[in-house]
Amino acid sequence: MNWIAFQNYFTAHWIELAGFLTTAVGIWLTTKRLLICWPVILAADIFYLIVFYQARLFSDALLQVFFIVFTLYGWWHWWRGVRQDGEVRVVPLSLRGWIIGLLAGVVGSFALGGLMVYLGASLPYLDAALTSFSLVASWWEARKHTANWWLWIAIDGIYIGEYAYKALWLTAVLSAVLVVLAVIGLRDWQRAAKAA
Prior knowledge:
The protein has helices spanning 3-12, 14-31, 37-54, 58-85, 95-119, 124-142, 147-165, 169-195.
């Protein structure tokens, strides 16, 4: 790839690049349980809302709207916890929480998938399933459950293939980076839980 082609690619895909960078930094800050992660993630949510809408991945675009809500909630919830406890404390997820979360993910996959077929979205059921389970993982993350990282590892692993198929190469690479960051987050949050 010559320099002009490289420059043209990034000029055409600058929103995806901005989403890539803010997502990677935001998730890395989340692994460290730093409150500043939330405004960075909010910027990433907005960038990717645009990217996915343009790629006709409507479930992913809708997911970004929910991410914006979860990001605002997570920011508030973590801030409140830091104010009360002096740090972001990790909270265990009960077996009941696991079951309810995973069932919600399955039900959401089918419901959203049917809607996406009707709307003519690309990869309607796969995208809907990833969106649905991403909402579960986001809820667990906002509630400070270590289990969010297990779910993100699985989700982002599958997203690599979806984004490669849609030629969203930066986002496919980002998903691979997010798998690594989720493993780091899992390790760090498990250590924090044991230290508490």
